[in-house]
Amino acid sequence: MHVRIIAGKYGGRKIDAPDNSRTHPMGERVRNALFNSIGAHVDGVDVLDAFAGTGAVGLEAISRGARHCTFVERDKIALKVLAKNVVSLGADEQAEIVRTSVNNWLETKQPTSYDIIFADPPYHDLQLSTVNKLFGLLKPNGLMVLSWSGRGEVPNLENGIVVVDNRSYGNAFLTFFRREE
Q: Domain limits at 98?
C-alpha cells in the first residue's frame, strides 16, 4: 500500500504504508484539508508527529517547509516503514525517529517545545491522558491537531489551551487546539 505526499519539495512522491489494520495513515483528502488550513504556519517550524505510524503527516510537514520533525511510534512494523520512508525521501537530516510509546517518551524526555503537534492515536484507544500531556509541549501560540474518530470526549483543556476549530471528514475528525500566549 502507498500514500502520496501531496505538496512541497516531495510533492507527488509515494511512501509506503503497512497493509494492516493497526496503522491507519491519514487519508490524502484529510491531510490535504489539514495542510490547506495550516499551510502558512508550517514553514520553518519544529513539528512533533505523535503516534506517527507511516510518518505521512510529519513528512508532509517537512515537504511543506517544516524545519524539523520528531516522529514518535511504538509499533515495530510501522517503525520499519517510517524509517524506510524517511530515508527514501532523503529527509534524514530533518527527522528524528523515537522508538517507544508516546507516554513513555513523555515520561523520559528532556523538555522540548514544538510549534505544531500532530496527534493521531489509534481510533480504538485515544489515550486521552497521554494526549493531554502533549499540550505541555506546545510553544506559546503553538497548534496541536488531534485526529480522532469523533466518538467519546475530546481532551480536558488546561489553562491557556483553546479549541480553535473542529472539522469532520467522513469518519475522521480533526480538532485544532492553540496555546494562547
A: 2-179
| Cα 153 to Cα 6: distance, rounded to the nearest angstrom | 31
Q: Which amino acid is at 179?
A: R
Q: What CATH code is carried by the domain that includes residue 76?
A: 3.40.50.150
57 grid coordinates: 503527516
Question: Could you tell me the pTM of the whole model?
Answer: 0.93
Using DSSP, state whether 108 is helix, strand or coil. Answer: helix
The answer to whether 1 and 11 have CB atoms below 8 angstroms apart is no
2-51 pLDDT per residue, tens: 889 999 999 999 999 877 666 667 778 889 999 999 988 899 999 999 99
- Interatomic CA distance for residues 174 and 37, integer angstroms: 11
Indicate the number of domains in the chain: 1
